[in-house]
Amino acid sequence: MSTLTVPHSLPPVSDDVEQLRKAFSGWGTNEDLIISILGHRNASQRKAIRETYAQTYGEDLLKALDKELTSDFERLVHLWALESAERDAFLANEATKKWTSSNQVLVEIACTRSSDQLFSAKKAYHVLYKKSIEEDVAHHTTGDYRKLLLPLVSSHRYEGDEVNLTIAKAEAKILHEKISKKAYNDDDLIRILATRSKAQVNATLNHYKDAFGKDINKDLKEDPKDEFLSLLRSTVKCLTRPEKYFAKIVRLSINKHGTDEGALTRVVATRAEIDLKIVADEYQRRDSVPLDRAIVKDTTGDYEKMLLALLGHNDA
Amino acid sequence: MSTLTVPHSLPPVSDDVEQLRKAFSGWGTNEDLIISILGHRNASQRKAIRETYAQTYGEDLLKALDKELTSDFERLVHLWALESAERDAFLANEATKKWTSSNQVLVEIACTRSSDQLFSAKKAYHVLYKKSIEEDVAHHTTGDYRKLLLPLVSSHRYEGDEVNLTIAKAEAKILHEKISKKAYNDDDLIRILATRSKAQVNATLNHYKDAFGKDINKDLKEDPKDEFLSLLRSTVKCLTRPEKYFAKIVRLSINKHGTDEGALTRVVATRAEIDLKIVADEYQRRDSVPLDRAIVKDTTGDYEKMLLALLGHNDA
User: Fold this and answer.
1) Are the Cβ atoms of B154 and A156 closer than 8 angstroms?
2) Looking at the structure, do residues A236 and A266 belong to the same domain, yes or no?
3) Per-residue pLDDT tens for B124-172?
4) Cα-trace Rg, chain A
5) Considering only CB atoms, which chain B residues are within 8 Å of A157?
6) CA angle A39, A19, A68 (to 5 degrees)
7) What's the pTM value of the predicted model, to 2 decimals?
8) Packing angle, helices B165-180 and B187-195, rounded to 10
9) Contact state of A130 with B196 under an 8 Å Cβ cutoff
10) CB-based contact, A156 to chain B, within 8 Å
C-alpha cells in the first residue's frame, strides 16, 4: 500500500513544469513549491513532468534539481524523480562501487523486487552504464559475497504460486544440515535461496521451522557481527517479509545516534508507491511510535518536509 | 543468414492448415505434404499456422504431429514447429534432466542467443514448466558444472559494442594466470566468461592471443578428455564464433560412426532461420564437402527430406 497522496484535480503537466521552473529561478530556490508538486505526483505523472520539462527547457529536470538542491533533500528528490527501474539501476551501481553495507542494497534490489521489476532494472543498467549489473557485481565482489550476490542479482525467479512440497521438505533438510555444520557459504544453501521462487522459498522455510523448531534466521545468528551471516538473514527477510525488512532498516536508520539518512532516504523513495504504509505500520507496531513522528523528531527542514509528503502528509 | 526458402506467393494460412489436416487423415500420413508446407514457412507463418490449426480443429498442431510422425523426423518437425523461445526452453529443460553432453546444450543456449532471446526463453520456461531455468540448472548440476552453468544461463549480458581496453588487458592477464596454474574453475575466470558482454570477451581474448601468443582454447586443451575443459572451450566458442561452434557440432554429429541425429536435428532446427547458411559454408570450408551432400550420405527418408528442406532445397 502506497503512502503517496495525489490531488484529486491535477493541474496540466505544463503547469507543473512551469511552476518547477519558477521554483528554480530568481533569488534562492522555492523548496516548498518543489515539494508541493513532486511530493504529490505518482510515477507516470513524474515521468510526464520530466519529459515535458526536457522538451520545454531543453534541460533534464534531474540536472536542474541537482543544481538547486543540496545534501539529503537533494538526494531524496533525485531518487524520487527517477523512474523505478532507473532508480534501482542507480542504487545498484552505487552499491557495486562501494563495499560492505551497500551489499544490503544489492540484496534488497535483487530480492524485494518482482522478477519483471528486477529485469527492468537490468535493462536500465545497460542503458545508463553500458554494461550489466551482473558483470559489475561479479567484478566488484569476491569470495562468499560474490558467490551469494551474483546469483541473487542474476536469477529471473519463477513467480507463480505453485509449490513443490517434496522439494520444500528436502531443501529444508539441506538448509538445516548445512547451517548445523556452519557451512553458511555452501553451494546448495546459496542455490536454494538464490534460484527458487519466493513461494517455494517460503514453503521451504515454513517447513524448516516446523521440522527443526526455529526460524532459519535465528539459526543464522550464530555470530551477530559476521557480515556474511547478516547478508544471508537480509536475503531471507527480503524474500519472505519485505515490509518487516524495510521497517527494520528504517528503525536502525532513525534509532542510532545520528540518523542514517542514506538508508531512510532509500527506503522512503523506493517504497512510497509500493508498501510504505505497511512498512510504517510495522514500524509503529515494533517501536510504539508512528513513523512520521519519529521522522519529525530525527530530521529537519526541507528533507523532513519531503519525507513527510511522501509518507502522505498533505500539508507538506 | 537463413537457409529457409519461403514461396513467393504464399497460400492463405487456412489452406496450409487444411492441407496439414489432410496429410494426417486417411490411410498413413502424407509426410511429403507436411514437409512441403512446414519446411517452407518462417517463424511467424508457422505461428499463424499453429494458432489457426488450434482454432479450426480444437487441437494443438504439435500434438497432431507427434501422433502422426516418428523418431528423428518427428523430433525435427516438432522442434521446428515450436517458437524459438519455447524451443530453447524445451531444449534447456531436457538438458537439465539429462547429464554430461547436454551441458553443451545449456552453454549453446546461454551463449549463442542474444540477451533478449535468452530472456524470452526464460519467460517461456516459466510458462511451460512453472519454474525457472536457473533453479533447474542449479538443482540438477553440482560442483564446477554448476559454478559455470548457473551464471551462464542467468546473466543478462550487456549487448553494446563498447569495449573497455583496460579491463580487456587486465582480464586477459587474469585468465592467463589462472589457466597457467590449471585453475580452470577459478572464480574470476568463470566470472569473466559468464558476465562480460560478448564484445568485451572478444576484446579480452584477442588481447590474450596478442599478449600470450596462443588462442585461449589451445591453452584450455590440456586434457582433451576433461569434460569441464571441453565445456569451457564451448563457452568461448559460442560467445565468440558461434557459426564455427555449430559447424563443429554438425561435423561431429555426421562424421562419427552412426550419425548423432540429436545434435544434427538441434542445430538445423535452431539455426535454419538464423545463420545456417554460414554454418554450412564453414562446414564445407573445413570438410571440403557441401553440408547437404554430407547429410544425404548420412541420413534417409523423411528425416533427410526435412533436413534438406530446411537447408534450402526447394524440391523437398
Assistant:
1) yes
2) no
3) 999 999 999 999 999 999 999 999 999 999 999 999 999 999 999 999 9
4) 21
5) 132, 134-135
6) 70
7) 0.89
8) 140
9) no
10) yes
